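Quick check before the chapter quiz. The format below is the same one you will see on the exam, so make sure you can read both the input and the output lines.
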Amino acid sequence: TLGEAEASLGLITALYDWDWRGAGEHFRRAIERNPSYATAYHWYGLDYLALLGRFTEARKAVRTAVELDPLTSIMRESVGYVELLDRQFSDAERAYRELVDYEPSFYKGWTSLGRSLFFQGRYEEAIESFLKGRSLAGDQPTLVTALAQTYAVAGYTAKARETLSELEAI
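Here is the expected output.
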């Protein structure tokens, strides 16, 4: 009967069962049962609506999550992520820059900014952003992979191989 439990069931049903109808029902019940539970809106927007390409609805859901919980950086990160998935890279960049201004020690702000810059072909800036994120987060494999990819696409073959070697060691 708890909205929080329904939201968790929605996330599991979406990400592990790929039962989109069931996941949607769980998320709608979660929000109905606890309309002030920001995480329900966050997961509903990112892990359901955005994955189904329903970006207008996803934007609304993640913005509601931020309104309900404006101090949590991961909620703020989701705003840019929906834009990134919708290939609105300059809008994603703007959201991520707001996030790093708000919470400069939150590594995902920097790494997400790096991804938005990468997709805009701004590789040097993306590398700087990934390196800043790495200095905060350490050697997270997805981050090191994104850095290696950016080095490769930017033409820094030796640096890309060196970074891939670091990834293998990790």
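If your answer matched, good. The chain has ten helices and no strands.
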